[in-house]
């Protein structure tokens, strides 16, 4: 609406519905649909009326600017938005509270019914059997409320079990190894294999100890305030891990870099974080990303970059049997992702003297 003096006052009002068709808006704002959280409904009031929230020219200008920002946000892609338009970050204490709330919630056991084309068997009898749904990928934070980092489903059971339960777990694993030896045609009671089940069970528990390691204990407060805002890189960190597809090793080197934001971390902690994730059943892509996420969460730097190159025995010993192939993965966060020149500098320093 337009007053006698020709000015329009715009008042932003929050909308709680997921999708609306706006009508009776000024011509500058065409009617269209907007998604939840980016919608601001504009109401026009004549300047000087009782319902007008801002009777001054400056107040109307501020409301008009707010309306323009809201409409610009909803019509632009995330990558092209102005950073000044983005909402403020949630305070740290709120993030911690939300993390603890997620940690307290338990996972439901999802079930799905059998497909419609198999509701009856060959004899025409209806089959009401339910089948377990594949586990949903965890979207837990990089560091959970108890200091664990993306733990497995049974990690907390393994971490909190008593001595008797740990002994029972080891005994079950030894029995599984003995069964495996029998299945491949060996005699588990001959001299060379007599203690193999126990040795392998203990070795497997050691090779997967990263599941129960605590990130906060690893860092141990080794974060120091320094006025250093240039790139820090730790190169050639040896990684030994197990491929989760075939349970055979893959080995290689990891390079971790970050640009501090007035805080630096003890150099050995970067290697320990990489070791923690390496001591799990892994794929190289996830291993690289997990290390980058945790370093970013712990240190809150301007950016983090992780590159890993390794050889997989599942490609060399079996299958395609390509012994000279190398797999390279990377993960860039923050300024390393946003600035090509920063990413290029990191990759140049990583490949120096090679």
Topology diagram in text:
Layout: E1 8-14, E2 20-21, E3 33-34, E4 40-46, H1 57-75, H2 92-104, E5 111-113, E6 130-132, H3 155-160, H4 163-183, H5 196-207, H6 215-219, E7 223-225, E8 232-243, E9 249-259, E10 263-265, H7 267-278, E11 281-282, H8 284-299, E12 303-312, H9 313-316, E13 327-334, H10 335-338, H11 340-350
Helix pairs in contact: 4-5, 7-8
**Ends: how far apart?**
70 Å
What best-fitting shape do the alpha-carbon axes yield? Answer: globular
Q: What is the H/E string?
A: EEEEHHEEHHHHEEEEHEHEHEHH
Beta content comes to 15-25%
Q: Count of helical segments?
A: 11
Query: Percent range for helical residues?
Result: 25-40%
Tell me the radius of gyration: 29 Å
The neighbouring-strand order within the major sheet is 11-8-9-12-13
Number of strands: 13
Largest sheet: 5 strands, mixed
Poorly predicted regions: 13-26, 28-83, 103-123, 129-139
Average per-residue pLDDT, rounded, comes to 74
Structural class comes to alpha+beta
């Amino acid at each position: 609406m337009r007053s006698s003096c020709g000015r329009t006052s715009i008042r932003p009002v929050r909308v709680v519905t997921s999708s609306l068709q706006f009508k009776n808006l000024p011509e500058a704002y065409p009617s269209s649909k907007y998604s939840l959280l980016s919608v601001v409904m504009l109401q026009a009031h004549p300047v000087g009326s009782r319902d007008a929230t801002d009777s001054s020219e400056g107040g109307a200008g501020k409301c008009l600017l707010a309306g323009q920002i809201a409409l610009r946000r909803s019509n632009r892609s995330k990558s092209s938005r102005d950073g000044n338009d983005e909402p403020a970050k949630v305070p740290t204490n709120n993030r911690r509270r939300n993390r603890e709330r997620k940690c307290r919630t338990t996972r439901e056991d999802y079930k799905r019914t059998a497909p419609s084309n198999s509701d009856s068997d060959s004899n025409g009898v209806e089959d009401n059997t339910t089948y377990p749904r594949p586990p949903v990928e965890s979207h837990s934070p990089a560091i959970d409320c108890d200091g664990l980092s993306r733990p497995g489903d049974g990690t907390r059971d393994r971490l909190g079990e008593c001595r008797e339960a740990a002994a029972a777990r080891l005994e079950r694993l030894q029995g599984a190894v003995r069964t495996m030896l029998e299945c491949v045609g060996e005699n588990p009671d001959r001299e060379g294999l007599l203690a193999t089940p126990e040795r392998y069970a203990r070795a497997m528990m050691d090779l997967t100890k990263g599941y129960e390691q605590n990130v906060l204990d690893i860092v141990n407060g080794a974060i120091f305030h320094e006025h250093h805002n240039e790139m820090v890189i730790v190169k050639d960190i040896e990684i030994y891990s197990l491929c989760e597809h075939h349970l055979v090793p893959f080995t290689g080197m990891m390079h971790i870099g970050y640009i501090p934001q007035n805080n630096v971390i003890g150099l050995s902690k970067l290697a320990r974080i990489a070791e923690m994730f390496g001591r799990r059943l892994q794929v190289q892509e996830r291993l690289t990303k997990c290390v980058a996420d945790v370093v970013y969460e712990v240190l809150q730097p301007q950016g983090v970059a992780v590159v890993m190159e390794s050889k997989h025995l599942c490609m060399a010993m079996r299958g395609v049997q390509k012994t000279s192939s190398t797999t390279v993965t990377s993960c860039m966060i923050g300024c390393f992702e946003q600035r090509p020149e920063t990413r290029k500098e990191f990759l140049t320093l990583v490949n120096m003297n090679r």
